[in-house]
């Protein structure tokens, strides 16, 4: 079992500042790199998914979905994760919708941590992933003057979930 870094509330040094958009990876989903908008105004994180289906295995509710890490890319990743919750989310336009939430690993700026992400249709958005303040809080600051301030993650293999 791998240890994950979590924010240390007693730490006195300021969190690492990242740009408003960054490359990151979702290792447990097998996604080696994906563009993300870092948004301190959004509470939760949201991932664009296609062909979402829920099912049960051994009494556990799971969700299967496809992720296209590039907006117009051809590469499609088939993913599966346990459902954490289904909650109502209000988007930036004030529209409310029920969304499935999963918990997964994120690797960003050399740090690997687990966070909740809701699954939704973001095809009209520029970034397939929005990383909200609950994932950023205590780990990273966001400097709107910066963009792609850390290197793009290297290719990774699929990590069993």
What low-confidence regions span 5 or more consecutive residues with pLDDT below 50? 156-161
Question: What's the CATH architecture?
Answer: Beta Barrel
- CATH topology tier name: Cathepsin D, subunit A, domain 1
CATH class category name: Mainly Beta
Organism: Dokdonella ginsengisoli
InterPro entries: Asp_endopeptidase, Peptidase_aspartic_dom_sf
GO molecular function: peptidase activity
Protein name: ATP-dependent zinc protease
Highlighted features:
peptidase activity; Asp_endopeptidase; mainly beta; ATP-dependent zinc protease; two-stranded parallel ribbon; Cathepsin D, subunit A, domain 1; protease; hydrolase
Q: Could you characterize what this model shows?
A:
By secondary structure, this protein is mainly β. The protein has 1 helix and 11 strands; from the N terminus they run ββββββββββαβ. The chain has one helix at 133-136; strands spanning 16-19, 21-26, 31-39, 45-48, 50-57, 60-67, 77-90, 96-108, 111-120, 129-132, 140-143. It has a 9-stranded mixed β-sheet. Strands 1-11 form a two-stranded parallel sheet. β8 (96-108) and β9 (111-120) form a beta hairpin. The protein starts with 15 loop residues before the first strand and ends in an 18-residue tail after the last strand.
What's a quick, concise take on this entry?
The chain is an all-beta fold.
List the topology elements.
Blueprint: E1 16-19, E2 21-26, E3 31-39, E4 45-48, E5 50-57, E6 60-67, E7 77-90, E8 96-108, E9 111-120, E10 129-132, H1 133-136, E11 140-143
Parallel strand pairs: 1-11, 3-10, 4-9
Antiparallel strand pairs: 2-3, 4-10, 5-6, 6-7, 7-8, 8-9
